[in-house]
Write a structure and sequence with these properties.
About 75% of the residues lie in helices and about 0% in strands. By secondary structure, it is mostly helical.
């Protein structure tokens, strides 16, 4: 009888082991319908513990990188950049190909320090492919590559210009300043223009700060926010950027004043207190969108800031209210009341309810698990992604694994990456 019981126990272990290996094997080699079935069966059998889901996530993310083609392949590789280390073998293999996705994989490997910069510049600087020239451009951060870098600021392919300007931000070479200023004024691509503006800020010095002030006079609000970011960079902040930020925080209204105030707070310098005061004022007196932004930025180390956010938790605007409650839910002294307010908002079946459920998950409120699990079959991909990420925050890897077999590859990849990033 004892021998029979022992055999049954061993058999059960073998079956469980096969089931676990099976769902990962399906993720690697099966079709989506089979993966859905195996994930469901493994979840119902209680076999999807954290380590198994991590293995499954690595298989799912790796397959997405391997199997996607064209622009979708580039998107998938960008999606896994935040969790690239566990996927090195897959990325190495993908980088051996010749298409745009291979170039994107090479850029990711470069960021991880897995590629030699000089070799990439040598091999790809004259490539007929914009994607591969972009690889050379991003690698061209050494002083010796300055002339090439500046030449690529004007490349006809915006991917190359963006990468070259990214390298220039890293290089912080004064020799790049005039070319970067020209790109900041004239580049037709908004992303390249923003990179150029940040390059100027990274290089810094009085010439850079004053040139950005001239640029400010003709810039739209989006560009002005980027200029604020540039002035906040250390080499510009110390050369007059601080003065520019104080002027904006004190004399402008709206998003510009809030952004400048936030930069002053983050700098932790002599005007940090002034920045906090501007943010507190925006929490109480700004437009609805300005208040939502200020609530997220104002430091809770200031008692007046906490008081302003507490007042906002009673606001008639539900968007303001949910963001205020979410901020306070992370503070032990205010958590209980904030969670109570979020639970009430979480009953709604709209985006407000989704925000409240996500905030409850971030605060560690296990009572929201059922509501999040129900959203794993919601019509919108974003809703399913938020639900799965919320379950991961609560340690419910079994239910979150449902999203690893989602119909949308973006959901599958995003959730897989969240699992892997949490492991690291």
């Amino acid at each position: 009888m004892a021998r029979s019981a022992h055999c049954l126990f061993v058999l059960a272990l073998l079956v469980a082991g096969c089931g676990t290996a099976g769902v990962v094997e399906t993720a690697l080699h099966g079709d989506l319908a089979s993966l859905k079935r195996d994930v469901k069966q493994s979840r119902e059998a209680g076999r999807l513990d954290r380590s198994t889901v991590e293995e499954l996530a690595q298989a799912v993310a790796g397959r997405e990188v391997r199997s996607a083609t064209g622009n979708a392949a580039v998107d998938r590789i960008k999606d896994v950049r935040a969790c690239a280390k566990p996927l090195l073998r897959v990325l190495e293999a993908r980088a051996e190909q010749a298409d745009d996705a291979a170039a994107e994989a090479t850029l990711t490997l470069l960021e991880l320090g897995r590629r030699d910069r000089r070799e990439l510049v040598r091999r790809h600087r004259d490539s007929s492919s914009g994607a591969w020239r972009a690889v050379a451009a991003r690698a061209a951060s050494a002083k010796e590559h300055g002339p090439l870098r500046r030449k690529l600021f004007a490349d006809p392919d915006e991917r190359v210009r963006r990468s070259a300007l990214g390298a220039a931000i890293e290089a912080r070479s004064a020799d790049d300043l005039e070319a970067a200023l020209e790109a900041a004024r004239l580049d037709p691509d908004l992303v390249s223009k923003a990179h150029a503006t940040r390059t100027v800020g990274a290089i810094g010095g009085e010439r850079a700060v004053l040139a950005l002030r001239d640029h400010w006079a003709r810039a739209d609000e989006t560009t002005r926010i980027t200029i604020i970011d540039a002035w906040a960079m250390p080499a510009s902040y110390a050369a007059g950027g601080e003065h520019e930020l104080v002027t904006i925080a004190e004399n402008h209204q709206g998003t510009l004043a809030i952004s400048a105030a936030d930069a002053l707070v983050r700098a932790r310098g002599r005007f940090a207190t002034s920045g906090v005061a501007v943010l507190i004022r925006a929490v109480g007196q700004g437009t609805e969108s300005e208040r939502r932004l200020a609530i997220q930025l104002v430091p809770l180390s200031d008692k007046d800031a906490v008081a302003a956010i507490e007042k906002a938790t009673k606001d008639a605007d539900k968007e303001v209210k949910v963001i205020a409650l979410a901020r306070l839910a992370g503070e032990s002294a205010h958590k209980a009341r904030a969670v109570e307010g979020l639970r009430e908002l979480a009953k709604k079946d709209d985006d407000l309810g989704l925000q409240a459920r996500a905030a409850l998950a971030a605060a560690g409120d296990a009572g929201v698990k059922k509501q999040l699990t129900d959203l794993l079959t919601a019509p919108k991909a974003r809703t399913r992604t938020v639900a799965a990420r919320g379950l991961l925050s609560l340690g419910d890897y079994g239910n979150a694994a449902t999203a690893l077999a989602d119909d949308d590859p973006g959901v599958r990849t995003s959730v897989a990456c969240a699992v892997l990033a949490a492991r690291d």
